[in-house]
């Protein structure tokens, strides 16, 4: 007889297995909680809840970052490419409207600089830069607010008009909104910049020495190219880089855009000076030779 056998049906301490105290096997099965019968259905221990909570938080954060990245990517695509496509349509429409207006404009004296009152947002000239392509042309509108620069290069209100003494100052986006001044840094001393109006062509030349490529050799002391902070408004003064109330000393053209690309930290500036008098369109309907100098 086994000396460890239960006596009179009574279970001794030695007969109790380590897990027997979790479930009373002598109890009727219909009274034992199912969660205890099936370990897989038991509620998780407190130590198991916390890691699961952190996994949920991490998963939610990851999804949020992915969504934010997609939104940012779509914004960049819109700013860099979609706005360029929209601007192409805008420029085409402005060109057609302006050419139609010019056909019905009254005749003015040869190479006139008369422009009358120009409302903000109204197109009044076409800018040609042969260095940037034989077909490079952009309609210029009055004003430099965002609404105007979305359409194309904008004319700083209060600065000179084409052919006038003073400083014809134009601003344009470097990236996006048509990117009219994307490659402005390619301009070299002596390069022509042609401004077309209703009845005239005006040819400006980038300041500097065409032979050496040095922008700083003009006797006026005005450089053909410079990089300045956005707060430097002297570049659009009647005499570039002089006081705002300084008297004009010639007929200049100034182009301004952001620098470097994809940044508004600084401004890239191009200065040019009017070459001779304006040219009547009636005399040269296809434009001056400078248009084909690129």
Task: Describe what this molecule looks like in 3D.
With 294 residues, this protein is of the alpha+beta class. The protein has one domain (79-113, 120-292): Sortase, Chain: A, CATH 2.40.260.10. Helices cover 22% and strands 19% of the residues. The chain has 3 helices and 10 strands; from the N terminus they run ααββαββββββββ. An 8-stranded mixed barrel has the order 1-2-3-4-8-9-6-5. The longest helix has 58 residues, at 46-103. It is globular. The N and C termini lie far apart (116 Å). Residues 4-11 and 13-25 have low confidence and may be disordered.
Brief digest:
The protein is built from three helices and ten strands. By secondary structure, the chain is an alpha+beta fold.
Core attributes:
294 residues; alpha+beta; Sortase, Chain: A
Strand order of the largest sheet: 1-2-3-4-8-9-6-5
Nearest-angstrom radius of gyration? 38 Å
| Main pleated sheet | 8 strands, mixed, barrel
Look at the structure and give the CATH class.
Answer: Mainly Beta
Topology:
Layout: H1 34-37, H2 46-103, E1 123-128, E2 137-142, H3 146-149, E3 154-155, E4 166-171, E5 192-196, E6 200-206, E7 225-228, E8 251-259, E9 266-274, E10 279-280
Parallel strand pairs: 2-3, 4-8
Antiparallel strand pairs: 1-2, 1-5, 3-4, 5-6, 6-9, 6-10, 7-9, 8-9
């Amino acid at each position: 007889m086994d000396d460890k056998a239960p006596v009179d049906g009574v279970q001794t301490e030695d007969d109790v297995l380590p897990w027997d105290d979790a479930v009373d096997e002598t109890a009727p099965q219909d009274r034992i909680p199912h969660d205890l019968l099936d370990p897989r259905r038991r509620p998780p221990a407190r130590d198991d809840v916390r890691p699961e909570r952190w996994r949920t938080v991490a998963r939610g954060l990851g999804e949020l970052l992915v969504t934010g990245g997609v939104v940012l990517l779509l914004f960049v695509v819109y700013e860099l490419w979609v706005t360029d496509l929209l601007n192409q349509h805008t420029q085409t429409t402005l060109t057609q409207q302006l050419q139609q207006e010019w056909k019905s404009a009254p005749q003015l004296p040869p190479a006139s600089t008369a422009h009358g009152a120009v409302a903000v947002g109204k197109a009044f000239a076409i800018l040609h830069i042969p260095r940037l392509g034989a077909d490079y042309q952009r309609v210029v509108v009055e004003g430099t607010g965002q609404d105007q620069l979305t359409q194309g290069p904008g004319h700083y209100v209060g600065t000179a008009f084409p052919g006038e003494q003073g400083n014809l100052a134009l601003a344009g986006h470097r990236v996006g909104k048509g990117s009219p001044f994307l490659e402005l840094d390619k301009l070299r001393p002596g390069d022509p910049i042609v401004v077309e109006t209703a009845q005239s062509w005006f040819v400006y030349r980038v300041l500097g020495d065409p032979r050496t490529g040095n922008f700083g050799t003009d006797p006026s002391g005005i450089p053909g190219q410079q990089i300045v902070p956005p707060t430097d408004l002297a570049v659009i003064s009647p005499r570039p880089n002089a006081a705002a109330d300084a008297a004009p000393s010639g007929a200049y053209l100034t182009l301004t855009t952001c620098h470097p690309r994809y940044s508004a930290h600084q401004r890239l500036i191009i200065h040019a000076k009017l070459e001779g008098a304006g040219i009547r369109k009636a005399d040269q309907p296809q434009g001056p030779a400078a248009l084909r100098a690129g």
